[in-house]
Amino acid sequence: MTFVKPAFRHPDAPRNELGRSRQDYEGGLSTLCAGCGHDSVSAAIIDACFELNIEPHKVAKLSGIGCSSKTPAYFLSGSHSFNSVHGRMPSVATGANLANRDLIYIGISGDGDTASIGLGQFAHVVRRNLNMTYIVENNGCYGLTKGQDSATMDTGTPNKKGDLNMYSPIDLARLAIEIGATFVGRSFSGDKQQLIPLIKAAISHRGFALLDVVSPCVTFNNHGESTKSYEHMRSANTDMPVDFVPMRQEITATYDSGATCEVCMHDGSVVRLYKQDNDYDIEDRQSALEATSHYAKEGKILTGLLYIQRDSEELHDVLDTARRPLNSMNEQQLCPGPRFLDSINAGLR
Amino acid sequence: MKATDTKDPEYFHKVVDCQYACPAHTPVPEYIRLIAAGRYTDAYMVNWESNVFPGILGRTCDRPCEPACRRGRIEEEAVAICRLKRVAADNKDEVSHLLPTAPAEGNGKRIALIGAGPASLTVARDLAPLGYQIDLYDDQPVGGGFMRSQIPAFRLPPEVLNEEVDYILNMGIRQHFQTYVSSLKSVLQQGYNAVFIGTGAPRGSDLDIPGREACDKSIHVGIDWLASVAFDHVNKIGKRVLVLGGGNTAMDCCRTARRVGGEDVKVVVRSEFSRMKASAWEIEDAAAEDIPIINNHVPKEFVHEDGVLKGMRFTVVDVVYDADGNRELVPTGEEVFFEADEVIIAIGQDNAFPWIERNLGIEFGKWDMPVVDKTTFQSTLKKVFLGGDAAFGPENIITAVAHGHQAAISIDLFLKGERVENRLAPGVTLVSQKMGVHEWSYDSEVSNDDRYPVPHVSKEKALRDRKLEVELGFDIDVAYQEAERCLNCDVQTVFTTSKCIECDACVDICPTDCINFIHNDAEPALRQSLRRPAKRMDQDLYVSNALPQTKRVMVKDEDVCLHCGLCAERCPTGAWDMQRFFYSVTKAGSSCKQSSPSMTSS
User: Is residue A104 part of a domain?
Assistant: First the structure.
């Protein structure tokens, strides 16, 4: 067994504004299959957090069950982590977020964990606009249990054995737009140039941010007829490149395209999207739904930032919760005593 | 950029920095693995095949491999390659039955070798087993040349030297020791089919400044003085000694002086410390024996009273570089006087060929040096070949060995009536090291250990006995730890474009960010656009053909690749594989007749 990652890094490896190296954001060595798209998503999260100068201990990473949900072990080993029950990551994330609003919440889930067993939990965390980044590593199959069809697998496409999927797929991005998500992006694990800025934008977004990332399963769903394979994504991907420009930095264009739009995030950073066409308004739900279905009909997959609603009210705003995390309050503040209980009870009579 | 041609043996050879830097191209990682495996005899023989003097070189080599070692680019210090070589020599079993022997029946051709140093001995080693009759001439009573006369016994014990010289002499070499060759013409007249000149650079430079002649008996030329000590003609020196010069000979002189009576020994150097020619470790060893090194002092005169040396006066200088990088030593106006009983001048050495008649057909060129072909080592007189320091001026033992091998090839070709330019390509193999899941046939795990220091005997003991070897060598346990620091750069990362599905797994896992998938461009632009810009121009980029899916190319900067194998480990399709590359310089008498570069691969 010779599977140990050496401690040495490139001598010119940069440090971020916190003086940290990228190595400080790494995690344990992956035990996923070689070539799994999920490892690329982990690498993109590492890059995004490194480049955003986030202190690892300011991050809480949460997951459910599945290949995707194993990955929090492979990045940000200095962060808080909770590997929860299958499909129940949103509840745990909600509880954690309500208790400590100062942390950055990154949920990692898969198509099984989100679109099958966890669909109910997913729908409600979306509509509550919990302030978190929710990444679905979407490979269209249950890789951990030998590759059965998942709920995101396209109708009529075969699994590895050759059996056709008879059911209609759930498009998590479209579903999220429908039910009130305030930030929805779609990307591909093999396109870090787009994925890293998207993750940065999602983390910077105040409110619920969904990233539906096609992340091929090399072992069970990377065959010639799969619509979630590397090859298919490389031919069907209609990508809208994304730039993420942090606050205080000059905005320079890296793509030549007429159809750009810039979105200023609440923290002053700017997301720039290079759209496929000028009519597409990413701040309009209907426009986003039309664009995604338009490309889907052509057998294409539109990726990039699909929809954003700025200045939304996240769950803390709606509930009017305390400004400070519960762990910074003393016993008197947390348990104000029978007098307050009495007044609450009186209000309910 | 054009896709890399990995069929060219030199591409992967260059990735093995140590082997590539070695003049004899000794397969360093190969023998280091054998040492780690406890196969000292095998490690010794891999060395012996390539560099002829593993025990000697394991103590005295100039180690061009170590500054080249990749490890020195990812952390402070290179692998202790040289001292690991010594471990193989110290711990080997009997090897005489593994060595080639001269055939009972000779081929009838006679070759004279003039000088019994490393170059000539290498020629003898290569040609005696082929049936040539070898006559070896030297003015000293025993073989070894400058390895014996100039390297003090406390760095190279005579037993070690004798053993490795004797391996060669025992191949039926006809020895003519204590025979000074004063005329090449007379040698040629003896009807030799070929003559090899390996007489070194035997003339030490002198210093012509006031007082030199008057105190001649207290002033010595370094290499001559070392030889006198080595052959027990000299066994003492005054208490106060000045050694002039900043090279390795100066270091050997000052340390020898400390052992034969010198109490206040100083080394005085014209130039600044950073420009000293001596190897860093030799300077360290001198410093450890209480020898100060005084830089930026230019000798002005020997001060004496009626021929009795009192000391030396020096002009203190500033070192100034002009815009073109030319050095100038500008006097500061200050002068310094150092007391001394004796002075050793070790400021360089030159070639000298007073014994070669100028009408034999050997053309002499610049600096009165014979004109020698850089590849074939042939002079303009076809049957005369030169090698070692005699060919192109002072170098070192390993260079002399490399010359010897090449000259032997030429002599063999010449005496077979073939063109000496018609040389064979190196032997190359490339074999996958994959054994199974997570199993490689080499220790791919990268050791994080710092370089292990070689233990020394105590200074008190060392200074009492000039023949006591100072370095004790690694013990087996430490040798193993040090061997594990080797990155196995000869286990190459081999990429197969057609198998790649561009999943990025290798990019994500590579600890040193070597691997990139980007759109092709001209090399300068490509170097700039990598994840970590490839700044080291002497390190190549490994570029694939256009990939099937995106038409991008894989570009790997070889510079700081750890050869940890994780790219191959995480590759789902086997597009990356770790393959052991073995490169051996073809020796004289190889029966393989192909003359174009070749590579066998699995």
Answer: yes
Please name the member of B508, B511, B535 whose beta carbon is closest to the beta carbon of A43.
B508
- The CATH code of the domain that includes A162 is 3.40.50.970
Domain hosting residue A105, numbered range:
22-239+278-321
pLDDT digits (tens, 9 = 90+) for A45-54: 999 999 999 9
Q: DSSP letters of B383-423?
A: TEEE-THHHHS---HHHHHHHHHHHHHHHHHHHTT--TT-P
Is there a common fold for B10-97+446-483 and B204-348? no
Q: How confident is the model at residue B368 (pLDDT cuts 50, 70, 90)?
A: confident
Q: Identify from B437, B501, B552 which residue to disrupt to test chain A contact, counting A C-beta atoms within 10 A and taking the largest count.
A: B501
Helix (H) or strand (E) holding A80: strand A80-83
Does residue A248 fall inside a structural domain?
no
A326 in a structural domain:
no
Please report residues of B whose CB lies closer than 8 A to that of A9: 511-513
CB environment A179-192: b (16+ within 10 A), e (fewer): ebbbbbbbbbbbbb
For residues B69, B74, B77, B78, the Cα torsion angle rounded to the nearest 10 degrees is -20
Tell me which residue in A4, A6, A35 faces B503 most closely, judged by beta carbons: A35
pLDDT in tens, B338-353: 999 999 999 998 888 9
Question: Residue A4's closest chain B neighbor by CA?
Answer: B445
CATH architecture, range B101-202+351-415: 3-Layer(bba) Sandwich (3.50)
Considering only CB atoms, A10 lies closest to which of B504, B513, B564, namely: B513
Mind telling me how many Å the CA of B509 is from chain A's nearest CA? Answer: 8
Secondary structure (DSSP) of A252-310: ---S--S-EEEEE-TTS-EEEEE-S-TT--TT-HHHHHHHHHHHHHTT-EEEEEEEE--
pLDDT per residue as tens digits for the range B380-416: 999 999 999 999 998 999 999 999 999 999 999 999 9
Q: Is B501 in Cβ contact with A7 (below 8 Å)?
A: no
On chain B, the residues whose CB falls within 8 A of the CB of A192 are 504
Fold (topology level) of B10-97+446-483: Fumarate Reductase Iron-sulfur Protein; Chain B, domain 2 (1.10.1060)
Number of folded domains that form chain A: 1
Nearest to A1 among B438, B512, B570 (CB): B438
User: Rounded mean pLDDT of chain A?
Assistant: 93
- CB contacts of A75 in chain B (<8 Å) are none
User: At B324, is the pLDDT very low, low, confident or very high (cuts 50, 70, 90)?
Assistant: confident
Question: 3-class DSSP state for residue B453?
Answer: coil
* Exposed / middle / buried, residue B271 (Cβ in 10 Å: 0-12, 13-18, 19+): middle
Nearest of B131, B56, B49 to residue B98 by alpha carbon = B49
CATH 3.50.50.60, applies to B204-348: yes
- Residues from chain B that touch A43, judged by Cβ atoms under 8 A, are 504, 507-508
Q: What is the pLDDT of residues B506-529, one digit of tens each?
A: 999 999 999 999 999 999 999 999
Give residue limits of the domains in chain B. Answer: 10-97+446-483, 101-202+351-415, 204-348, 491-601
Q: For an interface test with A, which of B69, B508, B554 has the most A Cβ atoms less than 10 Å from its Cβ?
A: B508
Q: Does residue A245 lie in a domain region?
A: no
Mutate to test the interface with B, among A12, A71, A231, A235 (most CBs of B within 10 A): A12
Give the residue carrying structure tokens 């900043």.
Answer: B246
Which residues in A lie closer than 8 A to residue B570 (C-beta atoms)?
A: 30, 34-35, 39
CB contacts of B491 in chain A (<8 Å) are none
**Would you state the CATH architecture of domain B491-601?**
2-Layer Sandwich (3.30)
Q: Among partner residues B505, B532, B562, which is closest to A34 by beta-carbon distance?
A: B505
Class of residue A261 by CB neighbours under 10 A (exposed 0-12, middle 13-18, buried 19+): middle
